[in-house]
Each structure stands twice: as C-alpha cells, then as structure tokens.
Design a protein that fits this description.
single chain, 771 residues, mainly alpha, Rossmann fold, Arc Repressor Mutant, subunit A, 5-stranded parallel sheet, two-stranded antiparallel ribbon, 38 helices, WH-like_DNA-bd_sf
C-alpha cells in the first residue's frame, strides 16, 4: 500500500455549529484518556456533527492527519477494510488481506480515524478497530454509533439532546431554540423568535431537543408558520421531511432516521419497543416485565431486551433512589405507538398497563403506614406519568371508571403528600364518581376520600353530601372499614364547622372503629386530628397525651413521613401549652424531612407555627419573614390562604400583633423577603441553619467526579432543574445526585452542601461543570 496524502479528508461545515460546549469539553477530556472513543445516542441527536467538530479541533495533534470513513453505505464485513483504505487515500497493490495490510501501514503513523455510522455492523467494526489499535500505538479512533461496539478499552460517551429552555427562562437561552432560530433564518430570511418564542420552545420540547427533528421542523417554515407546525405535531412523521436531494437518505425524514434504528433491532427487541410505547414517561424494570411480557416475550427475557435497546440508543436510562428508570424519547415512543397500533395489541396492552398501576396503587395503600413509606413516595412520584395514563384510560373507556375510583382512592395519601398533585387527585376522583354511580364498596371508599380532599381545602359544604352518601353505602353494604373512615372525616367536618364537641365524639368513635378493624393507619390519623381538636378546644393535656401516642405509633413502624407530621402536631400541642421552645424543637425536627420529600402542606404548616413561636418570643421581624415564606408555599400548591383553616383566629391574632410591633412598612418588607425565598431557603431560614462547616466531615474523596460537579453547581445556587440543564442530564438524575451527596456527607440541606464545597470541594473540582 502506498499513501497518497496526509492532511486528512474532513468535510467543510456548511452550516453553523450550535451549542455543545459541555459535550465538546467532556469528549475532549475522554479523548486524552482513551484510544477508542465511541459517541452513542439516538438517531438524529447529532453524533456525526459532534464527531466532526471534535476531529477538526484535534487536527493539529495528529501528525498524519484526521480521516473520516462513512460506513453507512456499506452492507457487509468484507467491504469494511477496503472502505477505510480508500478513505485514507491508500492504493492497495498487494495480495494481502486489506485489514492486515492496513494494520501494517498504520503501525508507525500518528492519526485520528473517524468511523461514522457503525451501528449496522458493530462486530466487524469492533474486530477491525481492535486489530488496528493493537498494531498502531499512536492511532486513535473516534466512532459514532447508535450501539456500543464492545472494543476492548473502548470509552463510550452518550450524546444527549440539545438543552431545552427551563420554565421561566428566556427561550433563546437554550441550544435547541437557538438551533431552530438559526435554521429558520436560513429558509426565511429575517426570521426572529419574537412572539413565537414560547411556541418554538414548546415545539423543541416535543421534538426532544433532537437536532435532526428541529432542523426538519425549521425547514417547514417555507410552508407553515410556527403555530401551525406545532398544531400538526400529532402527524410528525409526515410533517418532518427534508425535500433537499443532497440530504442523507436516512436523514430526509424523521421516520427514516428512526426506521434505520428499527432495522438494527432483533425481532424481540422490536416487539418490546412497540409495547414499551404504552408508557408515557419513565418506567422501571418491574413495570416493563409485568406490562410487556407475554407468550412471545417471557418476563425473565425483558431485562436482556431492555439492555439491547439501551445499547442501540432506543432507550435512555437514569437512576432514582438507587433504582434504574427507563424512558423512550417522544419521537421514538410515537414511532413505537404506530407499530403497536398496527399490531392489534394496543387495546390489550393499555388495559394491562392500567391493571399494573391499579395493582401498584393497592400495594401502596396496604404498605403506606410502615418502613417503606418514603420509598413509596419516591416510587409513586417516578410513576406519576404512568398513573395518569392509567387514569386517562379508565376514564376514557366505557365501563372502566370503577378502576379510576380505586386508583385515586387507594393513593389518597400520595395525592396529599406530593406537591402539585392534590388538586389533580380531587378533580380526577370527581370525574370518576360521575362516571361510576353504581353502589359498590369501591364507590363507598371513593366518596369519603373525595370528602377528605374537600375538607383539606376547607370546603365543608362540598364534603357533607359526599360523607352522607358514603355512610349510607357503608351501612347498606356492611363495610366496617369504610364506616370508620366516614365517621372520622365527619368528625373533622364538624371541627371545621366549629362543632368541637361533636367532632370529639365522632373522632373518638372513629378511633374505636379503626381499632376494631385493625386499621393502624386510620388509628394514627384519628389521633392526629384529635390532637388538633383537643388543642383548639382548650384541653391541652389530653392533646399532648394523644400527640405522644401519635408519635409513638410512627416510631414503632418507622413511617418517616407520618412521623414528620406527628412531630408537627406534637409541636402544636406544646405551643398551646405555652412550651414554646419544646414546640419549636419538635416542629423543626420534622420540617427537614418534609422538605426532602416535597411535602409542601407540611412545610407551610410548619412555617406557620414557627412564625407563631417567633412572635411569642418577641422576634417579630423573623415571624413576619416566616409568614411570607408560608404564604408563598401555600401559593405554590394552589391556595393563597393558610392550611390551618381551623386556626385562622390564631393566625390573624399573631399577624396583627407582629404588624403592629413592626409597623406596616417594616412588616411588609420582611413578609416580602420571606415570600421571595425558595423552598430550600425558607426551610433553612426556619431551621436557622449554621452555615459554618460541621466539626467532622468525611473525606471529600467519597464523592464521584459527577457529584463534585453537582456540588459545585449547588454552591452556585442552581436549582435541580438548572443543574440538569447545565449538565445535560434528566432533572430526576440531578435530584438523585444531590440526595447521594447529602447522604455521603451526612448533610441535611443544600446550604450545607454549598458550605462543604466552599470549604472542602474546590480543590477537588478539576473541570468547571457544564463548560
């Protein structure tokens, strides 16, 4: 073989290169640590473009040039080595095998070989790459593939979609919107985002931030305005097509790009891909096994098939609370749905999907008041999209509404604990009650749950008829458990209506009924409400006794979220007794747990009581700040009034005293300062967090490099959403990193993480995150 030229053969860029600062920096770092770097990712994510920019930037480091080999046109292993020979500009005039001659010729050369589009022949590429790397010590290979290649020593970098705008962030700050705007200006000179900024941002979100899809959408501006493109996204595969003859065939339409990935899959992987499209968001292994297995795919085969789809960049994987979570990008999911619809399996799959989440809801209800309570909150938060889809199926299919009744009523604790979900739970339950009027045990339960939702929002008038119907059904159908709950919440309704003695009688009766039914969760909640009613009626000793019993029940079952609320109600009882310091200590003890699990009802109630305590101590400015923080927390979950509706008089009395002591302007200033705090900042302020580093710390080396990056961004004041955008990871992945950091360092707040990083972390952060 004789070389013809040495400078390389990289093509010139014909359009602007947008974003990718973090990916370029990370890939460059990896290229210094490995001789074989493979860029993987979904079709259309921009692997080739990123590889070409990396290669161009590295050109000066390779004496013998940087060479691109496009493998997409190849169809068999025999053509692979000759294609590399041709791309390198060598003339093969020997009788040797092309791969042997190529290895010998590269032996003394220092060059970068870019192997593009390797996914359709991973084994031949892996064999050739291994042989060349073994023969040529100064050779480096940069590959792009939708599937990992499995070369010894290979380092894999997954190319993520472009960054998308965060809520409240200017649309043009994201890479995806910037790309759309630049490509739109090329087809429609003078194009600016203007009033279309939010529409473009939504379009980019629906396109998953995939560069190919965004460029195809921008090209349609020749025919349609942004608003119409967005309206037609339900038919995205027909809409997004490139009419240019110069476009690579597999990139001329969004469907063609995904067809290429589909063709690479084994038959069983294709079946699983279609079935997984029934999940609207992320899902776990257990869910995939139960929903997608059948005679064709056994449950124990799902794990390996998921691995195959991950390797081919069909699935993305994140981790939440130590568990793997999987997701199909929206475009890939839509493609799978088309396949599923054509298979005839869709109705059965959707019912199986619903039944899975119905079973999950039943388990959650049974296991809620126990040691797995916090894990259940995390699990249900992760599965929120699946739960919603199950409800939508049940509410949209004739005769299926009873399942919706059971799902919502089984998860009533979840709806109450999870920020932003309470109103949704109430609305969905009301709809299900309309669609399933039959007198059944499920309806009897759903009615008292609906009443509890109404009472939680202070709507006593709406709760009373629901409780009345539930009581009638429970008595007629002989349902002692439902009757206990009806009695319980009838007592709470009486209390909210000012009938304290009737409330005490009903709550005491409910407690006895729960005990007879061996319903420990019901006993606990009745004790919780008895503390509130006895406190409000002036019997503070009885309130304190029940508070101690309420707290002991949680301690015995390790029900940590219930315990945080029991600590709050115990603090409330002590406040009514005048024991301010003990009250503050109890409330603060539960507050951080509430914050960790986003229990905003509990956080707001805690901030409210702590404001009362500060006022009692004469610290009016601090009390006003806490009132502002409590008000902002209530508004974040859809209400502008304190949740302690039965204690409105105490709130008003305390607020008036604080306002009079400070004066109107000073009060308003402190209130606004509190209202402007984030949830974390408000809790830290309430806890009076000591920002100095604790006396003892674990060594900084316990954090992984990624956790070091996340810690630095926390120290910079970024939220989990902002960290996710900066590092181009899922928000839930960012949340998991923050949780791991706090666990490893024995910390309890983001402020402490920031303090730790400032003191210990900077010397260990080698690379600026996101740059």
């Amino acid at each position: 073989m004789v070389p013809k030229r040495t400078e390389g053969n990289l093509p010139l860029e014909l359009s602007s290169f947008v974003g990718r600062r973090h990916e370029l920096a990370e890939a460059r770092r990896l290229m210094t640590q490995t001789r074989m770097l493979t860029l993987t990712g979904a079709g259309g994510v921009g692997k080739t473009r990123l590889a070409l920019r990396l290669a161009a930037d590295a050109r000066r480091a390779f004496r013998d040039g940087v060479w691109l080999v496009d493998l997409a046109p190849l169809h068999d292993a025999e053509s692979l080595a000759p294609a590399v020979v041709d791309a390198l500009g060598f003339r093969d005039e020997s009788p040797r095998r092309p791969d042997s001659g190529l290895a010998e010729l590269l032996e003394s050369r220092q060059l970068l070989l870019v192997l593009d589009n390797c996914e359709h022949m991973p084994l031949p590429v892996a064999v050739l790459a291994g042989k060349l790397l073994g023969a040529a010590p100064e050779l480096r290979i940069l590959a792009t593939s939708r599937e990992t290649l499995g070369v010894e020593g290979e380092c894999v970098f997954t190319v993520p979609p472009l960054t998308l705008p965060l809520p409240g962030q200017s649309a043009d700050l994201s890479e995806a919107v910037t790309l759309f705007a630049e490509r739109a200006a090329a087809v429609q000179p003078g194009f600016t985002l203007g009033d279309d900024g939010e529409r473009v941002a939504e379009l980019c979100r629906r396109l998953d931030g995939l560069p190919l899809a965004i460029e195809l959408a921008a090209a349609r501006l020749r025919v349609l305005p942004v608003a119409e493109i967005l309206d037609r996204m339900d038919d995205r595969f027909r809409l997004l097509a490139d009419r240019r003859q110069t476009a690579v065939p597999r990139h001329r339409t969004l469907r063609a790009a995904i067809d290429w990935s589909y063709d690479l899959c084994e038959p069983a992987e294709r079946v699983l891909w279609a079935r997984l499209s029934v999940f609207p968001g992320e899902f776990g292994l257990e869910s995939a096994e139960q929903v997608c297995s059948s005679d064709e795919i056994a449950p124990d085969e799902v794990f390996d098939l998921l691995g195959g789809l991950l390797d081919k960049s069909i699935l993305t994987r994140t981790e939440r609370a130590g568990r793997a979570r999987y997701r199909l990008l929206d475009n890939i999911r839509e493609y799978g749905r088309d396949i599923l619809a054509g298979s005839g399996e869709e109705p059965a799959l959707r019912r199986r999907h619903r039944d899975h989440y119905l079973s999950l809801a039943r388990r959650a209800r049974q296991e809620w008041f126990g040691p797995d309570q916090a894990e259940w909150v995390t699990r249900l938060q992760c599965d929120q999209d699946g739960i919603r889809a199950a409800l939508e199926f049940s509410l949209g299919e004739p005769g299926e509404a009873p399942a919706a009744l059971e799902i919502v009523s089984s998860l009533w604790n979840y709806w109450l604990f999870t920020a932003g979900s309470f109103g949704e739970g109430r609305r969905r339950l009301a709809r299900a009650l309309e669609l399933a009027p039959e007198a059944t045990p499920i309806r009897a339960d759903a009615l008292w749950v609906a009443a509890w939702f109404a009472l939680r929002q202070g709507d006593v008038d709406a709760a009373k008829p629901l409780l009345s119907e539930s009581r009638d059904l429970a008595q007629r159908l002989d349902l002692p458990a439902a009757l206990a709950s009806v009695t319980h919440f009838s007592g709470l309704a009486a209390h909210l209506g000012g009938e304290h003695q009737e409330a005490l009688a009903l709550l005491t009766e409910a407690r006895e009924r729960y005990l007879a039914a061996s319903d420990q969760a019901g006993v606990w909640m009745t004790l919780f409400h008895l503390v509130i009613v006895y406190s409000a009626s002036g019997d503070t000793d009885q309130a304190a006794a029940y508070a101690a019993e309420c707290l002991a029940m949680c301690e015995g079952r390790s029900a940590y979220l219930s315990r945080s609320n029991a600590l709050w109600v115990a603090g409330l009882a002590h406040w009514f007794q005048g024991a301010q310091d003990q009250a503050a200590a109890l409330v603060k003890k539960g507050l951080d747990v509430m914050r960790r699990h986003d229990d905003r009802w509990g956080v707001a109630e805690s901030l409210e009581v702590l404001a009362w305590i500060e006022a009692a101590h004469g610290r009016e400015e601090r009390a006003a700040t806490l009132f502002g923080a409590a008000c902002a927390t209530w508004r974040s979950i859809g209400t502008a009034t304190p949740g302690l509706r039965s204690f409105t008089d105490f709130h008003n009395l305390c607020e008036t005293r604080v306002r009079d002591a400070l004066g109107g302007d000073a009060y308003l200033s402190a209130f606004r300062r509190g209202a402007g705090l984030s949830l974390d900042e408000a809790v830290d302020h309430a806890l009076d967090v000591d920002r100095s580093p604790p006396a003892q710390r674990r060594r900084p080396s316990v954090l992984t490099p990624r956790e070091q990056e996340v810690a630095e961004l926390v120290a910079q004041g970024l939220s989990n959403k902002e960290i996710a955008a900066r590092l181009v990871i899922a928000q839930r992945t960012a949340e998991g990193h923050v949780e791991h950091i706090m666990t490893k360092l024995s910390l309890s707040s983001r402020v402490q993480v920031a303090t730790w990083f400032t003191t210990h972390g900077r010397s260990h952060s080698r690379n600026p995150p996101g740059r």
